[in-house]
Queue: 2 jobs
Job 1
Amino acid sequence: QVQLLESGGGLVQAGGSLRLSCAASGDGISRYDMAWYRQAPGKQRDLVAFLPRGGTTNYEESVKGRFTISRDNAKNTVDLQMNSLKPEDTAVYYCYARRAYWGEVYWGQGTQVTVSS
């Protein structure tokens, strides 16, 4: 069991930056594959960035070169650094955790990111 809490969302102008943080509690994220997803109004929830346990990152094509996912196992946090933001990045961003080997999936409640033109 792990609880996930996102923070760092807000309103930003196009071209600006935001850093989202996901704070985990109840279990250590070193046991989990971690990811960020996003969901725009009327659309499905899509994978943005994936950071498997002990593995290498994977990004949605549209955010490559602009977004960076990272984890700090000591602080039990996963961050998403978002640079050069575009209006099409506007969405609710969700932290995701998948327990290694057991496969249990957990979601945060999401944090709103709005990019204005």
Job 2
Amino acid sequence: QVHLVESGGGLVQPGGSLRLSCAASGSIFSINAMGWYRQAPGKQRESVATITRGGMTNYADSVKGRFTISRDNAKNTVYLQMNSLKPEDTAVYYCNALISVRPGNLYSDWGQGTQVTVSS
């Protein structure tokens, strides 16, 4: 079984920074795209940032210039550096990965989520 475990969430003041990490473990053949999603109360889960195995990134317009996604393929880990945080960034952040446990077998896996709260 493959597990995704997030860490790094917490409480931060507006303008502050947090760095989220998500490590995949288990029997993994390969990990293709990875990404961060968030869900605020009363809102749908939305894509924040994604990154391909080769390092191509995509960001939501609301976080461009403030957030940076990166990955370490050797460690099966994806990161989200969040700078200049705003109250509207408050949400539960979820890690997602498109995983192959063997060639030709892909599935999407999710972490348990980590709370990010931006408040004075």
